[in-house]
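ok so I'm stuck.
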Amino acid sequence: MSKMEALKLSLIFILLANLRSITSSPDNHRYTVGDHVPLFVNKVGPLNNPSETYQYYELPFCRPDHVVPKKESFGEVLNGDRLTSALYKLNFRENVIAETLCHKKLEADDVVKFRDAVMNDFYFQMYYDDLPFWGFVGKIEENSWTFEEAPKYFLFKHVQFDVLYNGNQVIEVHAFSNPDQVVDITEDVGIDVKFTYSVVWNATSAAFETRMDRYSRASSLPIHQQIHWFSFINSIIIIMLLMGLLTLLFMRRLKNDLTTCSAGNDEEEDKEVGWKYIHGDVFRYPQNKSLFSAVIGTGTQLLALVCCLFLLVCLGALYPYNRGTLCTALVTLYSLTSVVAGYTAASFHCQFAGTGWERSVFLAGIVYVGPLFVIGSVLNVVAVSYGATAALPFSTIMAIILIYVFLTIPLLALGGVIGYLFRSEFYAPCATKRFPREIPPLAWYRKTPCQMFLGGFLSFSAIVLELQHLYASLWGYKIFIVPSILFVMYIILIFLTAILSVGLTYIQLSVEDHEWWWRYVPLQFYMHGQVHTQIFKLNTAIEHKHVNGGW
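replied:
not stuck anymore, here's the structure
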């Protein structure tokens, strides 16, 4: 064989090897028989509190000599994912029966850790070819026929992986624990455990593009659709009733009053009562104009942020178990929408005064981030002390600070400059008097606490069912997959808030209380805070169904 022919053969082999690496790799999720498919262990945690998660190897499972953490994105770190390598080997389309993972000597302390995990219904989460799946650590057997014997705790020592494939792609994966292959960990004594696993491959006709649909299939059941429609109809009825009440109020009470005020008859002023009596004080500028403008700007920014999130959901950029995408989107969108906060705060401030808008823009940058940073720091310290995966590493904290300093603050300042340049003057329809009128004593049911309770209760009753589904997906294992209905409920909440604000403000002005500017702000905060508080109480009361096996 000549040198030229040998060179040609070498080039052919190199091209074939490169072609195989291109057509078969974890990046495009295409494999050939026997290829290594990446499997990563992620975290463990109690079933009844999905927010409490720990790294997988916090429990004394079989582990490699050198644990290699997967390089994670910014959003994955914020989401609490800590993917690391494992001893399991699940090669593509290669069945494995009772393969030994490791022989491990569990000391008494290890047994205590496992028993505590079983007592709290700990689960584990893994990722195989970017598909999440779960399984349980162990099981509890209680002797219900007698109260003298204590329950027994068992550790699963065998895991069976059932994998479905279509052609050269992985479609679905499950982890099942055999309840017959267990080891008793009731006593605090050291034991020898042989951990094993099996892998079973089966073909399926499901398409690769639809493999993530099964994670959201539970929320598409008819019973859930009925709940969504019931919540939607309930909200519409409440809005129609409030609109009817408000329309009747305007038609019967305000039509003649507005006509009288627009005539400008000062001789009738002393004879007027209610809101007409204080028309010269209604548009008096609020105290702390800078802080008030900052709050308005921050609220507008959050409104724009939520609308952008809904847009991303509609475009398909956000979907269940797309690791870290939601957290990344939140941080990015908050930084980008800071220009909205700066513009709104500056333009609103300039309607009250021509100078000092810089202070409003500055406050808009810290009125939400400041308390959020303090609360987040406290929670992060607690997470670090418990070793939870929710703890953010120092590098991620510095990345967040740099994003805020070099992206959020410049965009906030840019929005403030734009708001100042395109400012407009405020022209009150009624002349403001020099000295404010004295506010008469009010009955308890006309004061702010009663109005706050009424606003929060009506908002809560209108969207309680939908928010329960939403929070169950945040703090539980249920996935909310009806973004269209959620968006409609969000519009309904905005509309309902506007109706309640107009109605409650009119009630306040009817009792000759003209200090409505700042009362409106805490009213809105309480209305939404009351909704979230009640939903949190409702969601924490939900009992999760325990299953002895895998998901």
